[in-house]
Amino acid sequence: MKPDFIRVSDELAASKSSARLAAIEGDKFRNWLEPFGVTGFPTLLYFEKGEYKLTYSGGRTKAAILKFMKNPVQEKPKKQVDEILESLPESIPKLTKETFDDFVEENAAVIVYFYAPWCGVCKSAKTQFYEAYEMADEEDLSVKFAVFNADPKDDPAEILFAKEFEIKNYPTIWFFEEAEQKYKFNAQNDLDSFLRFAREPEKRGRVNTLEGDPAWLSPDGQMHIEILSDESYDEFIAENDEAMIFWVAEGCIRCFEIVQPEFVILAQTLAELKPTFKLAIIDGSEFKDFVTEKKVDLFPRLEYFKRGRFEYFYENQQNGQAMLNFALQPTKEGAEKPKRYIWELDSSRDSGNIIHVNKFTFPEEVEKVKFGFLMLHAGGFDGAGSMKNAYDAFSEASKILAPISELKFFACDCGRGKDWGKARV
């Protein structure tokens, strides 16, 4: 479009017309452009005698722009069909800039569906939103529903008004309480989620999958662990003198199969020995934006807080005894990763049926066999014999299978340097 715009400018100047064209870099002057409802580029604004008249919506060719500048009369655009309103129940009002404030002030609880007429998701979700309204009405929930067109092409003032409500995508649904913009819907655009939002807006339409899960009950049958959300996270920290928060995520095997059983036993033990030390869990899968905000990049994650302030990430062994020792006497050293030790193989531990390899020898050795089973081993943790026990079991299996199977056993000591343990089966 830029070349045609320049040609129009040159032609107007050559004809000694009083009309002039100008260009502005919108990204640098967004604040200045906001009153004119500029939401995208290129946008052509027409001014006359210093006053804004209209946003040009005609063709973007040289001929079309030149024709308009010689006779600045804009053809009325075809009326936009607003499908959101086609099946709108009579009792759900369509709010405007003029009626919005009065409506939210007159009603104690209001859910507003901010939409754009062109938005496909808005159109597909509207039926569920309207059904949620009808069910909420049947349940006598004291909440009103309303819709607001946040992107009317012919009304920049409405677009600008909608921006006050942090509308970044469509649909955006807000719950207003006593005229205060309070809770933003953050769940699937379906009937159940909309209805949950009407019943319990503070949960933002979500179902916390941890709630009611018996796996988090301690052996005494009691729930000694608090389930957090992005809303209750900071409040929990502020209310408790000492606290540990356990971040979990869907699909994290270590979270649920290894740490969880130890954590629930720890919760019961602390309830008896140190009841002021509180434990909580939060599901990162449910609160993905919050995960980003808190920079959680690994699960499980254990955080320790004291008097409302973050102290340490707990990175020590994630078993009940180690975590209990830390909780009873929290120190920086107790939270740190345990020191590794190097254990050396002795002849008594090796059955003689294991082929020891490294990065360089493994490719050659594995080509010689039909089937291979590789164990990557390294130094374990202080006080833990799991590595030795695993190697002993591996060695015993190689001894048993040697006379009856073509399967060959390989072992690679990954603790001997960066060039070791790079092999892949």
Unreliable residue runs? 380-384, 417-425
- Write out the strand line-up for the largest beta sheet, numbering strands in chain order: 3-5-4-6-7
**Sheet with the most strands?**
5 strands, mixed
| CATH architecture type of the largest domain | 3-Layer(aba) Sandwich
Full CATH superfamily name of the largest domain: Glutaredoxin
Give the averaged pLDDT, no decimals: 85
Element order: H for helix, E for strand: HHEEHHEHEHEHEEHEHEHEHEEHHEHEHE
Multimeric status of the protein: single chain
Output the CATH topology of the largest domain. Answer: Glutaredoxin
Number of domains: 4
Q: Tell me the fraction of residues in β-strands, as a range.
A: 15-25%
- Number of contiguous helices: 15
Number of strands: 15
> What's the Cα radius of gyration?
33 Å
GO molecular function, one term: protein disulfide isomerase activity
Protein name: Thioredoxin domain-containing protein
Organism: Oikopleura dioica
Domain Thioredoxin: 74-203
Would you write up a description of this structure?
With 425 residues, the chain is α/β, with parallel strands linked by helices. Helix content is 33%, strand content 20%. It contains 15 helices and 15 strands. It has helices spanning 2-14, 30-33, 62-70, 83-86, 100-106, 120-138, 156-162, 191-199, 233-239, 253-273, 288-293, 320-328, 332-335, 362-366, 386-401; strands spanning 44-48, 51-56, 94-95, 109-115, 144-149, 172-177, 180-184, 225-228, 242-248, 277-283, 301-306, 309-313, 354-356, 371-377, 407-413. The strands form four sheets. Strands 3-5-4-6-7 form a five-stranded mixed beta sheet, sandwiched between helices. A five-stranded mixed beta sheet has the order 8-10-9-11-12. Strand 6 and strand 7 (180-184) form a beta hairpin. Helix 1 (2-14) packs across helix 3 (62-70), helix 6 packs across helix 8 and helix 10 (253-273) packs across helix 12 (320-328). The longest helix has 21 residues, at 253-273.
